[in-house]
Every structure is written in C-alpha cells, then in structure tokens.
Amino acid sequence: MEPRAESGMDTYLDIYSPETVLEQLNQAYKNRFYEEDEPTPLCHIFGQQMWHSNAYLIANRTALMELKEAIDVALKHKEIRLGLSPSDGEGYDLFIKCVEDDFEWEELEMPYHDRDCYVPDETVGIPPHKTFKQYKRHLR
Questions:
Q1: Is residue 65 within 8 Å of 80, Cβ to Cβ?
Q2: Residue 73, SS3 per DSSP
Q3: Backbone CA torsion sign across 95, 78, 112, 108
Q4: Using alpha carbons only, what angle is made at residue 91 by residues 31 and 87, rounded to the nearest 5 degrees?
Q5: Which of 131, 66, 58 is nearest to 98 (CA)?
Q6: 73-108 pLDDT, tens per residue?
Q7: CA atoms of 36 and 25, how far apart (whole Å)
Q8: Hey, which of 6, 9, 63, 84 has its CA 20 to 30 A from 91?
Q9: CB-side exposure of 31: number of CA atoms within 13 Å?
Q10: Is the whole model's pTM more than 0.90, yes or no?
C-alpha cells in the first residue's frame, strides 16, 4: 500500500520528496477556488424514497466533472469527500466510498428515506458514516 497523507483540503499525496509535497499542495490550493466567470458546481441528489423507486442526480457540468474526478480518487484511495452545493447555495459534503467485492452489504442500513413506507431496523444496520475510515472525525 502506498503511503499517503491527507490535508484539510482532501489532497492525497503519494510522494516522498518534501519539495514535491509543497509543490503539490500549492497546486491543489490554487485549483481550489473558482474564477468569477466559472460556474459553481451545483448538484441535487434525490435518494430513493422506498424500494423500487427511482433515485435522481441532477447537476451542472462543473459538478459532474468534479464528481467524476472524485470517483477516480475513490477508486484509487478507497474514499473521498467532495464539496457540492444545491441551487440555494447551502453547501454539503458528498462522501464517496469504494468497498471491496466481499463487503457485507446486509450489515449496512438501507438508503430509503420515506418513513411512511419504510421504517429501518435500528438494531441491525450500520449507518453509512461508520464505513468511512479517513473521515471518521468529520462524521459523528
């Protein structure tokens, strides 16, 4: 496994040279902010209300490109946090986790959120935030 460090900006480093680390962090910091004429990444995620109902992800191109990059990082480093915003400007973090094929799905609580149709068994399921290792201080 490659050694890596994580900054508050969720920048993964898999290098050993202090000069290169500083260079990579500076580059990540410069790329962290949007230009005035650049669109804000807007993304609405609508989860399943109950079994067999649809889920929806509606996003502008900027948000989809950031989501694509975040998925690539999750595939490589197992998890990532992506800051997004709905159209009202109230930002949120989307946590993405890549699990192994032998992950025990039956232990994870179901994602349905319409409590009139589905009431979760609180004693069985692991909440999704418990699956994250690198963000456990952020997810309580």
A1: no
A2: helix
A3: negative
A4: 100
A5: 131
A6: 999 999 999 999 999 999 999 999 999 999 999 888
A7: 22
A8: 6
A9: 10
A10: no
